[in-house]
């Protein structure tokens, strides 16, 4: 109560004694834990109290709600721009699945979300909306291990799917809105639901930046056998988040995220030179993968990157998906050497999915390089760092320092040493 912003723009808050899930018996079908049960029952009791007492609107702040500076001005501005049909409005939360389904802008400060997680600050208005909410919360078709915010997220999705995606959604829904930037976060206290404790107030991804558009993504672009694996692994050693499971052809590590590699091969199976997947679908899937890696990188206080040769061909799709957050690390090696190296690899692995004829290998390599260069020429606004592979393997310290500066990171001395040690001068088998 002492940390409420002043002047307070709402009626005097009324304390509501929450249900302690440890002191009551949870139903046998409940699998989400005692804390989550207490949270669900507490919110349901507040809603029931309002319905029974004829209260037509209410606002909930959980006891760990922390307010952003300028809350009063932000709140008044948001409320003044809320559409007339609003029934549920979040003041704080976390956007889920924002990579595939970004919040839709309604006004300068108002967005329609796809799925909002967390219940530490929200407003409900109107008996029709309250009754819809009550029916949804007491509906037995909960997903196993879902908490109340997960279940509410399914309700929120319906209106988005109907109005933004044009789907025929017959189940009842509520008009839900969020501000462009969250104005209420969660204080650094221990959660009695998951048991974790944080050191600072947490504000999650905003509607304006639900896809982490202000966080860079570093795409390592180059044909096969051009030194991109070496660069990607150097980045990995420097602490760049290149994916959750890295694979690749190289014995020392290819620096290729398995999920990204699978996506690229699904879109354009080696040794094809053009994708079979539609442009819109490919752009959406690439963006979704990148947004998830950005979120993980932000969590770990680093930057995200990705490497796979197909990305040369998909550079336009990358740019269409993530726009000005794209950064390119173009790895240069004489194309004849890259072609020879890929042909040699293919000849040693005849019958494998990653082998092709000499002509197929040459056609693919030249196509990848041409598409990369065409993209860079047509988009001079995209920041680019060119890495000469020959210089990398002969003077790795110099190139790695340039790379660190371009990435904008501060690796430890151990990470820098590990990155330098990864570079193997014997890699230059074909020039």
From TrEMBL:
UniProt cross-references to Pfam families, sorted A to Z: Glyco_transf_25, Sulfotransfer_3
Descriptive protein name: Glycosyltransferase family 25 (LPS biosynthesis protein)
Lineage, highest ranks first: Bacteria, Pseudomonadati, Planctomycetota, Planctomycetia, Pirellulales
Stored InterPro entries: Glyco_trans_25, P-loop_NTPase
Naturally occurring in which organism (per UniProt): Stieleria magnilauensis
Glycosyl transferase family domain location: 34-95
